[in-house]
Specification:
By secondary structure, the chain is mainly alpha-helical. It contains 2 helices and no strands. The relative contact order is 0.07.
């Protein structure tokens, strides 16, 4: 009986861990892309606020993002 319980629990844990790993590997490119976008947004916002070293580039990037957002929403 104890072996049967260990077998059932072990199989369920193994299947759950395998499903979680497959999910994490599948979503990893999305997470990397979102984190890259967030990093770019933080750099642009810091440049727009005057705390960055490339203020003209930050202003250009901010205007570009706003225009793409407006055109994409239309």
């Amino acid at each position: 009986m104890k072996g049967l319980i260990n077998y059932i629990i072990g199989d369920n844990l193994k299947a759950t861990a395998l499903d979680a790993f497959n999910w994490a590997v599948g979503i990893l490119p999305d997470l990397v892309g979102y984190s890259a976008l967030a990093t770019g947004i933080f750099v642009m916002l810091s440049s727009l606020s005057g705390h960055g070293i490339m203020k003209p580039l930050g202003v250009f990037a901010g205007v570009f993002v706003v225009s793409v957002s407006v055109l994409g929403a239309a």
